[in-house]
Amino acid sequence: MIWGLGTSHIPAIGAAMDNGKTGELYWKPLFDGYAPARDWMRANRPDVAIIVYNDHANSVDLDVVPAFGIGTAESYRVADEGWGHRPVPDVVGAPELSEHLVRQLIDDSFDIATFNQLDVDHGLTVPLSVFCPDPGETWPCAVVPLLVNVIQYPQPTAARCLALGRALGRAIRTFPQDIRVAVFGTGGMSHQLAGARAGLINTPFDRMFLDAIETDPASLANLNREDYIREAGTEGIELIMWLVMRGALGDRIRRVHDAYHVPASNTAAGLVLFDVLEPGELVPE
């Protein structure tokens, strides 16, 4: 494992890139904040990215909503979310790693749904574009989609997501092939799309989260669903997916870069990038 990324997956971010608007006054501060992370990730390209995200009823409808699932396909088509496909490549899978992760996580007492066929929506493609804004004909790495239910109550607890991440890290480290793996946690930050609090953004909570995700993820795991919804909004509960990423990285990390911008669409947009330290490499003070 080489690095972990926490990033918002706001669909308007993808639309800004697709329509050449990243230099406009509204969008430029957001994309300027991404630039150092993009430079670093480009120099540390993974073979496979495990992207923790939620489907937005584009491929997985509300008839069957697993708590956790992993895609095991050879490839994943980009979903049509109602206005056509994004002009980005389809996603190449890593089925051998996917099947290894499913087996190891089930043996580690996590009940994982298996998606042998899956279209991927902005929850996955926007984070890929945050990493690689100009993929050309193919993305620079294969992808394992890891889906989390953050839409239908009851969602998995934050504590369960952190535990899943730790189990995911163990599973990655037992994969017999020598590959470079990055883990993305996606969604959030604070936002609410409907109801009396529509438009909610809680910057103090977001700032606290960006600090604690590095230094004290257990404190974030101790927050319950109601805490996340009260502080970050009904859609802000997506932040529990960042805890899967954080758990997978282990304790020996350093922060490479972070960014925070309000608003992107009607959402607080955050990014944090962690480097996983090599054995013997000193942990930064």
TrEMBL record:
Residues 6-268 form the Extradiol ring-cleavage dioxygenase class III enzyme subunit B domain. InterPro entries: Xdiol_dOase_suB (IPR004183). It comes from Nocardia aobensis. Keywords: Dioxygenase, Oxidoreductase. This is Class III extradiol dioxygenase subunit beta. One of its GO terms (molecular function) is dioxygenase activity.
